[in-house]
Input
Amino acid sequence: MEVCTKCGNSKVIIKRKQSGQLLCKDCFIENIQKKVIKTIKKENLIEKGDKVLVALSGGKDSVALLDILYDLYKRRIIDLCAVTIDEGISGYRNDGVEIAKNHIKKLAIPHKVVSFKESFGLTLDEIMKNPNHRGSCTYCGVFRRWIINRVAREFNATKIATGHNLDDETQAILMNYLEGNIENLTKIGPKTVSKSKLFTPKIKPLREIPEKEIALYAIAKDLEVHFAGCPYAQTSFRGEISKIIKDLSENHPTIMYSTLRGFDKIKIAIKDKYKSEYKFEKCEICGEPSSNEICRACTFLKELE
Ligand code: SF4
Ligand code: ZN
Output
């Protein structure tokens, strides 16, 4: 009979292919929480007294992240607030927004829901009707960052925490590598700090946890999450890369960890070579920090006019 490697409980909920470790529900939950705290300490992601803004979509990653950070909040180590972005993707985003609101009601922390429509006058669905669009995820990423950064300043947050997991990080590394985008590659990491004080540092406490284990954590803790995938995700390059990594992981269960570890070493070696020399000015149109006269969000909006 298979029993939990830590406590001997016979109700095993996970067998880790990469290490052979077996864990019961309680030991698994504790193990994930400890792993996240370990990443936070190792990478110096959070300091006592930080006000952390969680980018809360209602999906498993951000809900699990909020759940784990809430423990630090209860212990008065950090202050906590959250933002939910409504991109305007019909049949998909509304459920996530409702789930996010439900969590916030229970936890009673400050929260803002901000839509693309109110910020830019367009939903993502409307943008995608434009025949000259640049691809859903391009707009989504730029517009979302623009909103989150603003909300972070409104909340006086000192860190922005996102739910990026090990799969997301590995995909980003491989995508940029395969596209030869080495400068972008150097921007991937557990913490992004900009020279401009108008940008709040971004942190990824879940970057060493595989997506599957985050999903299992949400189930084990009985957290309400939005499991549906974005309807635009299938068409993206990221979707193709994700499939390749998943297929490879079947016979090589440590491949995502080794990709991340290898990349973290390469990054140290190349980061000085690609140090950004950007001088941040304020965008002439919206006033957000930008390395050009007009920021990317405003450039896209002009194109879409
Ligand atoms: Fe936005 Fe969907 Fe692309 Fe994610 S997959 S970046 S939600 S369009
Ligand atoms: Zn702008």
Remarks:
- The radius of gyration is 20 Å.
